[in-house]
Amino acid sequence: MRKIISSFICFMLSFHFSYAQRSIDYDFIKHLSQENKKIEHAQYLKTEIELSDTLEYLKAKFYIQYKMDSSFEYFFKKSKTLFLQDTLALGYASCYLLSNDSTKINKNEWFQRLNKYQLSKEINHITAIYNLKFLPVKDIKPLEYPNLIKQGVIEYKLAKQKSPLKAALLSSVIPGLGKVYIGKFRIGLSTAFVNGLFAYQTYESIHKLGIKHPLSILNLLLTTIFYSSNIYGSYRDTQYFKEEKLQQLYNDASNYYSVQSFPYLYK
Questions:
Q1: Distance separating alpha carbons of residues 219 and 247, to the nearest angstrom
Q2: Could you tell me where the DSSP H helices lie in 66-130?
Q3: What percent of the chain has pLDDT above 90?
Q4: Number of domains in the chain
Q5: Which of 93, 157, 219, 239 has the greatest count of CB atoms below 10 A from its CB?
C-alpha cells in the first residue's frame, strides 16, 4: 500500500513540475493576436502555460482586445502594475472605454486612476477629452486638440451651452421653437405646423359647435396633449443633443488615437 501511495505522489509531483515549467510562447501569442484568432488565443491562455502575474496581464490584454470588458476589469486588477507599464495596451484600453456605451467598467474610476500615473501625451489627451463633460463651458478650449477632433470639441462646446429649460420655455411660447434653438429646424417647423393645425381645428370647433360639444372637448384635449408633449420633447431633446455630441466626440477621439498611437495590442 505504501508503495502505491509513494508511486502516486511521485507521479503527481512529476506531473506538476512538468506542467509548471512550460513557459509562455510570446511569439505564438503575438501571432494569434495579430490574426485575431480569438478561440485559439483563449484556449492557449487557459492551458499548458505557467501561472503567474504575466499570465494575468496577458489575459487582461486578451479581454480588452476582443472587447470583453467585464472580464478585462477583473484581470486588470490582478495585473495592474504590469498593465500600467504598457503604454500600448493602456492606450488601446482607454480608447475603447472612451467610446463604449455598454461597458461595465466604471469609467470615472478608470480615468481618475490614470491621473495618478506618469502617462504618455496621447493617454493624457484621452483623459482630458473624457473630463470635458465635467468642465465649465468657459474652460473648454478646442484649439488645444488635434485638428481631426477639434471640430468635435467645438460642436460639443456649443451643445453644452444649450439649456433644456430655455428650450422648454421657447417651445411654450411658440411650439417647435425649442427644437430650432438646438439646430433642428425641420423638426421645429413640423412641430409648429402640427400644433398650429390642432389649435386652429380646436378654435373652429369651439367657434361653431361650442366649448361643451364632445368634438370641441376632444380637440381641446388633443391640442393640450400635443402642446405639452412639444414642451417636454424640447427639454428632453436638448439633453439628448448634448449627450449625442459628447458621444460623437468620444467616437472621433477613440478612432483618431487608436489609429495614430495604439493600432493594436502587440507590437
A1: 40
A2: 69-78, 80-84, 87-99, 107-114, 121-130
A3: 32
A4: 1
A5: 93
Asked if residues 88 and 267 have their Cβ atoms less than 8 Å apart, the reply is yes
**Residue range of the domain that includes 245:** 140-267
Residues in the chain, total: 267
Report if residue 48 sits inside a domain: no
Residue 36 falls inside a structural domain = no
Among the listed residues 68, 67, 45, the one whose alpha carbon sits nearest the alpha carbon of residue 55: 45
Backbone angles phi, psi at 100, to 5 degrees: -95, 115
| Contacts of residue 28, Cβ cutoff 8 Å, sequence gap at least 6 | 44
Residues 6+ apart with CB under 8 A from 236: 164
Cell 505564438 belongs to residue:
28
Contact by Cβ (8 Å): 226, 197? no
Predicted TM-score of the model (pTM): 0.77
Indicate whether 227 belongs to any domain.
yes
Q: Does the pLDDT at position 49 exceed 80? A: no
